[in-house]
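Dear H.,

Thanks for agreeing to be a second pair of eyes. The structure we're designing against is below in token form, covering all 216 positions.
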């Protein structure tokens, strides 16, 4: 007696598997196949990248060094202004007056004698402005104000590049014993500059500008 649920035969199973395998997609013929770079190729690419970075850094260093050398050459070869030719500019109202040094002496020169203070007409102004040369204000310098009452004398020190101009008052804010304000007799600018000796060699030069109100 035959059963209603028949079992599949082995030959039928084999044919089914063959048809399933035959239906799987295959790569198109002639299509390019991607391959991962080998360790050697990756190493070469990394070395190439490092070389490019090193060359870029080297080029930057060369540019910076070249710029520094160019600036140093310019500074060493430029014609500087000697201390005796430096000028302080006094601004009185709308007028500008160039003030030459009162003295420009080598530190160890016992024979150097100062000149006379520059007499400046204040033209009725209560104060004036002094513009300092760059060769002076680019390092420490000092200003001494001397009044007809020693108790009002004043000395100010300025650091490098701190002050390019300063104000000078004709009268002090202090009071004398009689109640009047001490009046300015002379104002001095002091600076140590680089000059040249009799042999043309560089030497430190103590340079002073002295200004007194006209008629004092």
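And this is the sequence the design step returned. I haven't edited it by hand at all.
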């Amino acid at each position: 007696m035959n059963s209603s649920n028949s079992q599949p035969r082995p030959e039928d199973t084999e044919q089914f598997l063959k048809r399933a395998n035959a239906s799987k997609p295959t790569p198109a013929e002639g299509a390019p196949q991607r391959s991962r770079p080998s360790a050697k190729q990756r190493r070469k690419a990394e070395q190439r990248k490092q070389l490019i970075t090193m060359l870029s850094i080297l080029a930057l260093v060369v540019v910076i060094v070249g710029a520094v050398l160019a600036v140093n050459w310019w500074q060493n070869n430029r014609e500087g202004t000697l201390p005796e030719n430096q000028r302080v500019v006094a601004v009185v109202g709308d007028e500008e007056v160039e003030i030459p040094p009162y003295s420009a002496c080598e530190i160890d020169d016992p024979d150097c004698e100062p000149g006379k203070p520059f007499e400046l007409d204040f033209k009725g102004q209560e104060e004036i402005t002094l513009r300092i040369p760059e060769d002076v204000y680019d390092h420490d310098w000092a200003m001494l104000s001397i009044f007809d009452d020693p108790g009002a004398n004043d000395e100010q020190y300025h650091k490098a590049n701190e002050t390019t101009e300063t104000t000078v008052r004709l009268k002090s804010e202090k009071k004398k014993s009689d109640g009047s304000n001490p009046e300015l007799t002379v104002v001095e600018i002091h600076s140590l500059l680089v000059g040249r000796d009799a042999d043309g060699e560089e030497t430190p030069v103590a340079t002073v500008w002295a200004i007194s109100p006209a008629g004092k």
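Two observations from my side: The radius of gyration is 45 Å. The longest helix spans residues 39-77.

Warmly,
E.
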